[in-house]
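Figure-free illustration: sequence to structure, shown twice.
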Amino acid sequence: MKKAIRIGVTRLVSSRSQALTLPTLSNTIHLKGTYLFCLSSSASSCIHHPPLHLSNSTHAIPCTFSRHYHQPACPSKTSKTTTTAPNKCRRVDTVKELCENNRLSAALEVYEANTTLENASDLIEHIKHEKDVKFMDLALQIYALLTDANIAPNAQLLSNLMYLCNNTNIKLTLILSDDIEKYKIKLDWLLFSQLTFATKMTRNTVMAQKLIQILHERVEFKPTSITCNAILENLLDLSDSVWLMEYMWNTKVHIDKSFFISLTASCTSKGKEALLYAEQVAEKISKTEFKANAEVLVYTFQMLVNCGDINKAVQFFENLPLIKNNEVWSSIIGLCVKNDRHNKALQLYDKMVEKNIIPTEMAFTNLLSSVTRTGPTALEIGKQLHIQIVEHGFDRNEALICALTRMYAKCGEPDKSIKLYDTAIANNVTQSTILFINALNAVSKLGPKHLKKGKQIHQKITHLELDTNLKLINALIQMYAKCGQSITSMELYEQMIKSNIEPNFMTFLYLLEMCVEQGARFPQILFFGRLLHNDIRKYHLEAHNLLV
C-alpha cells in the first residue's frame, strides 16, 4: 500500500485531451487525461523529478507535491548570513494545520511519514468539507493506509468516510459497515445515521436487520424518528417492526404519523400471530394523538381487516372517542362493504345519522351497494337512502345516480331505474357506461313491453360512441334476449367475436338461457346453441356448472 501511495493515486478522468480542473487545492492544477497525487516519502525523489506542465494554461503549476515541509538542519553557529537565532529549528506543521491552509499535498506527505489515527481523521475531515467527489478515491486510500498499519479507526473517522460514500457510491457504506464489528467500534449517533441513510437509499433489508440488532444492545445514543422510519421501511419481519415501535415508545422517541402508516401498511399477514401484532399496534395508536387522525385510523382499520378479523377492526373503531370526521366514517363503511359486512356498514350509517355526521357521496355509494344484499328490506332501506341523498344535495352526483339506478333495478323497481336514467340524460348529468348498463338491466327485467326503451338506450350508446366493452355488450345481449329479439342478440355476439372481444361466463349464460327459452320454437336458435357449446370449450369455460 505504501508503495502504491509513493507512486501516487492515479485516476482516469477523460480519454479526451481537454484540460480538467481540480479546484480543492490551494492552487489550480490543469491536467490532460489523468491527475496524480505524488506522495513520495523521500525529498530527493521529488527534487529530481522534472515539473509536469500538462496544460498550456498560464495558471497551470507542476503536478508534483515536493516535500517542502521536512525538518531542516539547524543553522551553523559560524554562519554570518543566517537570519534566525542560533540553535533554533523551525517547527514542522501538523496535518491539521496544513489542511487548514489548503496544503493538501504536504499534509499527505506528513501522513505517509507519520500514519496515525489523528492524522487520518484530520485528512478525511478536510476532504469531507471540500465536498468534491473527485477526492473520494483519495479518502479510501487514506483509510486503507491506516488499516494496513493495523491502526483501528474510530466512530468519527468512519462516519465521515461513510458520509463521503453516501454522496458518491452509497454501496461502499454497506461494505465499510463490516469494519464496525471487525474493530469493535462503539457506535455514536452520527455513525448510526449514516448507516440508516444508506439502508434507506439502497433498500437493504439485511442492514435493516443489523440495525435492529444494534438497538437490541441498548446503545447509549437516542435514535431519531427519521432514522427509525428508515429502518422500518426495510424490515421484512413483522415482529421486528413491532419491536421497533415498542423500543421507540419505551425510549420516548417520537413516533410520527409516517411511522404508524408504514407499520400498519406492513401488517398484511393473516393468522393468530399477525393478529396479535396488529392488536398491539392498534392499542398503541389508541393512546396517541393519532387516534383522531383520519389517515392513521383508516390504515389501522385496514390492518386489522387484513389480519383476518373485521370484528376486531369495528370494535377498535367503536371504542375510540367520538370522531366527527365524515371521511373516516365513510372509509370505514367502504371497508365493511368491501369485506361483505353489509349489515355492519348500515349500522355505522345509522350511528352517523344519530351523531349528526353527514355522510359523504362515497359513503352513500357504498351503502347503496350494500342495500342490494340485505334481504327483503333492501328496497325500503334504499328508498330512505335516496331521500337522504336528495336532502344533502347529492342527487346530481354521477356515481350516486349510477348506484341508484343499479339499486332500483336489483331491488324490484326497474321502472324507477329507467326514470332516473331519463332524468340524468335529459339534464346531461352523466354519460357513464355504468349508467347505460344499469338502464339496460332494468329493461331486461321489465321484459318485451319495454323493447322500445331498450332500443332507444342502444341508439344513445351508438350516438355517443361509448366504448363498447364486454360488460356493455353483455347487457345489450341480455336485454335483446329478454325482450324476444334473439336474432339481434346472436348478431351482437358475432360482432363481438369479429372485434376480438373475448366472451366470458356471463356472455354464454345469457345466450344459453335465450336458447333454452326460445330454442323449441326457433330451430336456428337451437342450432346456434350447439355452436355455442364449441365456443365454450374454445374459451375454456366448460368447468362452469351453470353453463353445463
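We now fold a second protein in the same way, so the two outputs can be compared directly.
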Amino acid sequence: MSANSMQLLKDLRACFSNVELVDQPLDAYIVPYNDQHQSEYLADCDKRITFISGFSGSSATVIVTKDAALLWTDGRYFLQAERELDESWTLMKDGLPGVPRPDEWLKKNLKSGSRVGVDPFLISKKLYEKFTKSVKTNGSTLVPVAQKHLVDVVWKNQPPRPTNPVIPLGLEFAGTSWQDKASLIRSKLKDNNCTALIVTALDEIAWFFNLRGSDIEFNPVFFSFAIIGLESVSLLIDSKQVSDDVKSHLGLNGPGGEVKVFPYNSETLKEQITSLKGKGKVWLSEKASFGLHSLLVADDTFTDESPIQIAKAVKNATEIEGMKNAHLRDAVALCEYLRWLEVAVPGGSIDEISAAAHLDHLRSKQKDFVSLSFSTISSSGPNGAVIHYRPTEATNRKVTTEEMYLVDSGAQFKDGTTDVTRTVHLGTPSQFQRECYTRVLKGHISLALAVFPNQTKGHQLDVIARQSLWNVGLDYLHGTGHGVGSYLNVHEGPQSISPKAVEAAAIEAGMILSDEPGYYEDGEFGIRIENLVLVVPASTKHNFKSKGFLTFEALTLVPMQQKLIDVSLLTATELEWLNHYHAMCRDKVGQELEKQGKQGVLEWLKRETSVMTKA
C-alpha cells in the first residue's frame, strides 16, 4: 500500500481549488491507468495510480472526490487490490453484478453542476466522450486539466522518463523492411483518402521502424511518436536514443532521406500535429488521447483503428518461424525448471522468490535471450488464487509438497516472445484439485481443437474454454486469450478471446493468441494452463459460402503434469489430443535438449510425456 495514502489524497484534493492548476474548482478527478500512448504497461514515472493508492496492478481507474477515493479493477486483481489498498480507498470490483462502471458511478453520485477533471492526454477520445455523456445527464461537466497532471503535482520524487538505448532489428528477425511497411501503410492511407497517419502506440512505432528499446520494463519499446505521410515520415524521439546504428537504419546519414527526426516533447508534438491542419484528412485512432484529437479538426479526422495494429498482429513467415524457434528454446528452460522443482522442493528451502529467480536464470542462458516478457508469477498455495500475483518479501511463501504451485512466465528473445503457464503439485493432490485441473485442461483442449469461420471474433470462442467448468458451477474472472507480439509486447491487440471482446478485431490466420483458462479457489490454490497458439487455415470437408475456416496450432511445447489429470473425465478426443500434444513436446523439444546436451532433462521429458490411457 502507499506509504501515506491519506496524506497524498489530502494533497491531491488541495489541487482541486488551486487557481494555478485549474480555472475553476473541481469536485472530482479521474486518474486512468495510462500514459500518453495509452500503454497497458507503464514506466515507473507514469505509475500514478500506484503512487497515489499503492495498487500495483496493470489495469485500474481511480476517481477521487472531496470525500471519497475509489479504485476500479478487473477480476485478475481483486485479491491483489484487497491486499494493497488501505482504508482510505473503496475497491470497486469491475464487472461484478451491482458494481457500477466509473462513468455510471459519477452520474449517480455527483451533485448537479459538478466539475470533473481529467488529463486529456491520458485518456482516449472514446473514453473521454463516454465520461462526458454520462456526467452531462445530471448537469455536470467533464473538464480537461491539461496544464499539469494533478498527481504529478503531489509526486515529489517522481522518477525521470527513461531514454534507454534503441537498436535496429535485422531482417532475419523482422522479415519485412520498414520501407516496405511504409509502402503498405501508405496504400491504406490512400484507400481511406487520408494524407497522414499519427502513430501514438509505442509497440506500433517499434514494429513499423524495426527498432526495439527498453523504456518500459519487459516491453521492447521506446518513448516516441510518429507521423507517416504519403511522402515523408516524422519520428519524435529523444536525441540520445538516435545512435549511429539507428541513423544508418533509418537512412538519416545521407541527403534526401524520408525520415525526419524531432525531439520527443509535448510542444513539438503539438506543432507537428497542428501543421497537418488543412492538408487533407488525418488518420488518428479513437484510442489515441482526447488531447491529441482536440488539436485536429474533427471533420478532417479519420478515427478507425490504426492500420498498423492488424499489420503487426498478422505475423509474416519470418516472424512465425522465429516464434516457433523461440518457443523451443523457452520450452528447454521451462522443462529444466520443472524437473529442478521436483528435486529441490522436497528439501524445504525453495520459496516463490528463489524459484522465480532460478527460472529467470535458466531462460537467460538460452540463445538470443533479451529479457523477461513480464515479471514471473511464481505462486504457491493460496497465492495462486491471486491471478496476477507477484511475490514480494511480504507475501513470499515456501514452495512445498503440500500445496499446488502455479508459474506463469515468459521471455523476450530476438526472434520471438513467449508466455506460458503451468500448474503442478509436487506432492499428492486432492481429488477436488485434480477435478478442477482436469476441467481447466478440458477447456484448454476444447479451444485448441476449435474450428471456426473467418471473421470470427474472440467473444464467440470464449465460451468454449469455460463449458467444462460451467457444467459443475465453476468459472474464472479473466479473459481466455490475448494477442502476443513478435519480440514485442506480451499483450497486444486488436485480437483477444474474452466475453468483453465484442469490439475486438476478427481473428485472422497468422495471428498469435494465448489459450489460458483457469480456476481459482480463494485462499487455497490457483490453476491456469496457458499455451500460445498460432491461427492457421483449417482443412474442412466443406467450405460454406467459401468463407474459409481457421483453427489453432500450438507454439508452446511444455507437458501437462500427469498426476493432476483425472483421465476418467476426458473424452476419447481430448485424450487423443493430449497424447498427440505430448508426443510433439517429446519429439521437438527432445531434439533441442539433445542438441544442448541436457540428457537428464530429456529423460524427465520422456517420462512426463508418456502415453496416457483410461484404466
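Summary for the second example: Residues 317-344 form the longest helix (28 residues).
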